[in-house]
Amino acid sequence: MAALRQPGRHLGLPSVRLTPPIFLALLGVYLIWGSTYLAMRFTIEAMPPLLAAGIRYLCAGMLMLAWLRWRGHPLPTRRQWRNAGVVGVLLLLGGNGMVGLAMERGVSSGVSAVVVGVTPLFALGFGYLWGQAAHGREWLGILLGLAGLVMLNFGKELSASPTAAGFLVGAAVSWAFGSIWGRHHDLPKGFMASAAQMLAGGVALLAVALLRGESLAAVPTAKALWSLAYLVFVGAILGFSAYVYLLDNVRPALATSYAYVNPGVAVLLGVWLGGESVDTVELAALAVILGGVVMVYLPAGRHAGRTG
Fold first, then answer.
1. Structural domain contains residue 269
2. CA atoms within 13 A on the CB side of 280
3. Which residue has the higher pLDDT, 273 or 79?
4. 223 CB contacts (<8 Å, ≥6 apart)?
5. What is the pTM of this model?
6. What is the C-alpha to C-alpha distance for residues 59 and 101, in angstroms, rounded to an integer?
7. Range of the domain at 114
8. What's 158's DSSP letter?
9. Cβ 208 vs Cβ 74: under 8 Å
């Protein structure tokens, strides 16, 4: 795995070709994170949202840190711990935590993924703070993806309360800013960045859960526990590590393009395993969203060597 964000890197990465590692990382965040929305819903049915998320990321971070230390990887410096802590709080408490709070208020897994789909647009906006400019085709892909999100909101299953919608938009903003901020600060190398961020985010989630008075009223169901295990080993360790890799190796628009595929995966899994339904408008919107992903990727393959 390539070294993660180094200090002083204030410009966007050069566009890159779709190498096998990048393809696998993209496939991971597209499919894995699309499936985590339903797993979160199953978990939250039996556990409070922030408590469940805190357990998820703290366990994943501890397991990854132990494995890395066993392999001889050095611990992060004090400065790297601090920066990783900021990113972990923004991504996991601000991002994942607010999604959980929205689901606690009855939002379906599909609509959660849909609203969080605005993340790439926020990422492009925050990128301007560090002099990163999107290419015209990337903007076209973003607009196409947003058009698909608007179409999805006309579907019969995709509606949410104003409070829950606010949580979801806040999650997208926090995740986008944390992703861009982390690219320009000194963070641990390789998978150690994932471990440090998950540890920090897990501790922050548990602290806020304690302040909210969250606790287990009863022993969680088997479905909730299996879902939590899936979130720890697949969603957190594999998915989050793939995302951290992408942040260091591709442009922000492509790294966050998972938000356009996740709604389709989340909706389809909700229909298959969660008893949700989907209509023709939603299916058409999913096709538009996937078209947006293609448009976002095309500049990376056609403008190799450019920065912005």
1. yes
2. 0
3. 79
4. 42, 45, 46
5. 0.80
6. 20
7. 26-302
8. -
9. no
Could you tell me which of 4, 7, 226, 37 has the C-alpha nearest to residue 113? 37
- Residues 88 and 187: their CA atoms lie apart, in Å, by 11
Taking the CA atoms of 238, 179, 68 and 209 in sequence, report the sign of the dihedral they define: negative
Closest listed residue to residue 2, CA positions, set 13, 10, 11: 13
Which residue in the block uniquely carries the two structure tokens 């095309």? Answer: 298
Of 256, 87, 106, nearest to 181 by C-alpha is 87
Over the Cα atoms of the chain, what is R_g? 18
Per residue in 226-257, pLDDT (tens digit) is 999 999 999 988 988 888 788 778 877 777 77
- Distance from C-alpha of 308 to C-alpha of 304, rounded to nearest angstrom: 12
Mean pLDDT of the chain: 81
**35: Cβ–Cβ under 8 A, 6 or more apart, which residues?**
230, 234, 235, 265, 266, 269
Q: Evaluate whether residue 290 is within a structural domain.
A: yes
pLDDT of residue 68: 93
Question: Residue by residue, what is the 3-state secondary structure of 82-106?
Answer: HHHHHHHHHHHHHHHHHHHHHHHCC
Query: Which residue reads 């008075």 in tokens?
Result: 213
Burial bucket for residue 128 (CB in 10 Å: 0-12, 13-18, 19+): exposed
Share of the chain above pLDDT 70, in %: 84
Q: What is the pLDDT of residues 129-160, one digit of tens each?
A: 777 766 777 778 778 877 877 776 666 555 55
Within-domain flag for 16 = no
Query: Structural domain tally of the chain?
Result: 1
- Residue 195 domain-assigned? yes
Most confident of 165-174, 207-216, 270-279: 207-216
pLDDT over 80 at 285, yes or no: no
Note whether 222 and 46 are within 8 A (CB): no
Q: Which residue has the higher pLDDT, 29 or 119?
A: 29
What is the C-alpha separation between 79 and 163, in angstroms, rounded? Answer: 36
* Of 75-89, 120-134, 206-220, the least confident: 120-134
